[in-house]
Specification:
Elements: E1 11-13, E2 25-28, E3 37-41, E4 44-48, H1 58-75, E5 82-83, E6 85-88, H2 93-96, H3 99-105, E7 107-108, E8 110-114, H4 122-125, E9 133-137, H5 139-143, E10 166-169, E11 180-182, E12 185-187, E13 202-206, E14 209-213, H6 219-228, E15 240-242, H7 254-260, E16 264-266, H8 280-283, H9 288-295
Parallel strand pairs: 4-6, 5-7, 6-8, 8-9, 14-15, 15-16
Antiparallel strand pairs: 1-2, 2-3, 3-4, 10-13, 11-12, 13-14
């Protein structure tokens, strides 16, 4: 595709990987400076994040997400307005602020998140919702399942027989009190004082297609991720990479790209003409250096 505009506010990737005549679609939804991705399968849907732009146009951002989901469920009436799982990569407004509105309007069966947060705690957002199964993840959950990542019912709740996705999580909240050395890399508690470095890293596979979501993971978290999966990095390879932290300068590294080997990169950032507080322009997203790195 040729993208001649200086910014991209929405991309709907229809990477149809056929499995026994079935297909999936990935909807990267335009909700300004925030993340919300809907993965559509024949037997259900999963969302990666359900955020809203903060400070400027927050309610408008959430309404854009609700409008998109309304139109989606009007088309997929067979799903009965049910979301099988919402996986929250980072407990922050731009990843979970719309969770209340979504859970009020649609039936949400499962929510998975990292426990670390500095603004919105997912548990607080869904406390009043009946029937929602919620689980916090720690890094130990994922690493103990190495080399394959963490894979269980709440992450991948579909009953699609041979037609469903494979959804795995490779990180969670990192708990380090004493310095640790991992494959020649030394890490300290201070490396994880930044809540971004507790983001979930999620991989979705369907047929021959794969997607990787790294939330807001930054350089120290990326280094820890790669050190823990050293020698088995191929499990992080993906066709589509949702660029970390909206294209921030410190959330995509050459080492990470060398492992992912993506064919497509999607940046979820706000319209460049929107210059209020909390917008992509305000944060400097996406970073020119990161865009150059991806192009190269």
């Amino acid at each position: 595709m040729n993208l001649n505009r200086s910014h991209v506010t929405i991309i709907l990737l229809l990477l149809s990987s056929v499995v026994f005549g079935q297909s999936m679609k990935a909807h990267f939804i335009d909700i300004d400076q925030a993340d919300a991705t809907l993965l559509e399968f024949e037997c259900g849907v999963v969302m990666i994040d359900a955020g809203s732009q903060v400070f400027t146009n927050s309610k408008q951002s959430t309404q854009k997400l609700i409008n998109y989901l309304d139109a989606f469920f009007e088309r997929r009436t067979d799903l009965n307005k049910t979301i099988n799982a919402i996986l929250i990569t980072r407990n922050h407004y731009d990843h979970n602020e719309s969770l209340n509105e979504i859970s009020d309007k649609y039936k949400v069966l499962n929510v998975v998140s990292t426990e670390n947060y500095n603004t919105n705690d997912v548990q607080y957002l869904i406390d009043n919702e009946e029937g929602v199964e919620h689980r916090y993840l720690t890094y130990t959950d994922a690493i103990n399942k190495k080399p394959n990542g963490l894979y269980y019912k709440q992450i991948d709740p579909f009953d699609c027989h041979d037609y469903g996705p494979v959804i795995k999580i490779f990180t969670g909240m990192v708990e380090i009190d004493e310095p640790v050395e991992v494959n020649g890399h030394k890490f300290y508690k201070s490396h994880f004082s930044n809540p971004n470095n507790h983001s979930l890293v999620i991989k979705v596979e369907y047929g021959e297609s794969s997607f990787l979501f790294t939330g807001d993971l930054e350089e120290e978290g990326i280094e820890y991720l790669l050190a823990n999966y050293y020698g088995n990095e191929e499990i992080l390879e993906a066709d589509v990479y949702q660029v970390g932290h909206h294209g921030s300068s410190n959330a995509t590294t050459t080492e990470l790209l060398g492992v992912i080997k993506p064919k497509y990169a999607v940046i979820s950032a706000g319209f460049s003409g929107d210059r209020g507080r909390g917008t992509g322009w305000d944060h400097g997203h996406p970073n020119k250096g990161v865009v150059k790195m991806l192009n190269e």
